Amino acid sequence: GFDAGTGKWVFGTPVSDVDTLGKWAVTSTAAVLVGEWTHLAGVFDPVRKTLALYVNGQAQPVAQRRSAWRSRGAIQIGRNVAKSGYTSAWAGDLADVGVFNRIIVPAEIATLSTLLPVRQAYWPLNQAVEDTSPEYGGGEDLRLSGGAQIYAPDLTADPGATEPLLGAGHLVLDGVDDYAATQAPIVDTVGSFTVSLRAQVTA
């Protein structure tokens, strides 16, 4: 998190499940830059009993953590939980949160801090020309087959029409032989990738 008193990044844990007894924490030497994305990684080493903090892949001073206890509550992102309730609300943006069940070594952290997602393709699915729906950035278009179609009503001319699922239109499939496909591969499936979409089951 962020320590408003020092203006630094901090990675810490309470000494016990009673928060008022203090905490073990490591504070960064790197200053917080408002308006800029920062990659943070906090590592607990149970053998050395240390807390380590990395800012944009750079190691910060290491601190001791000499006590450990079992937390039984849910993970909280963007706030602290105390007996008095929720505190220290985060003001800003968060992305790409990961929790690992082992120590992540410095070389891995350096990779994680520079590993930004790259969009390979995006289809708004709001129009089709000759059974082809264009890719947003001019890449591989989707060929609509089997009777698949884009539903994109003119809500000005027909105010009573059902609005599209998102934006100006969406893809409609009949569950029998409709589909959409590109002519060439988009991603190398040997590596990692993510596919996201909005879907609505109609039958």
List keywords for this structure.
about 200 residues; 14 strands; elongated
- Measure the end-to-end span: 46 Å
Rg, nearest Å: 24 Å
How much strand content do the residues show?
25-35%
Q: What would the average pLDDT be, to the nearest integer? A: 89
Number of strands: 14
Tally the helices: what do you get?
A: 1
Query: By helix and strand content, what is the structural category?
Result: mainly beta
Helicity, as a percent range: under 10%
Order of helices and strands: EEEEEEEEEHEEEEE
Looking at the structure, what is the overall shape?
elongated
Low-confidence stretches: none
Largest sheet: 4 strands, antiparallel
Summarize the structure.
It is built from one helix and 14 strands; from the N terminus they run βββββββββαβββββ. By secondary structure, the protein is mostly beta strands.
General description of the model:
The chain has 203 residues and is mainly beta. The protein has one helix at 106-114; strands at residues 2-3, 8-14, 23-31, 40-45, 50-55, 58-59, 63-64, 80-82, 85-87, 132-133, 142-145, 149-151, 170-172, 179-181. Strand 10 and strand 11 form a beta hairpin. The longest helix is centred in the middle third of the chain and has 9 residues, at 106-114.
Mind sketching the topology for me?
Blueprint: E1 2-3, E2 8-14, E3 23-31, E4 40-45, E5 50-55, E6 58-59, E7 63-64, E8 80-82, E9 85-87, H1 106-114, E10 132-133, E11 142-145, E12 149-151, E13 170-172, E14 179-181
Antiparallel strand pairs: 1-2, 2-3, 4-5, 5-6, 5-7, 8-9, 10-11, 11-14, 12-13
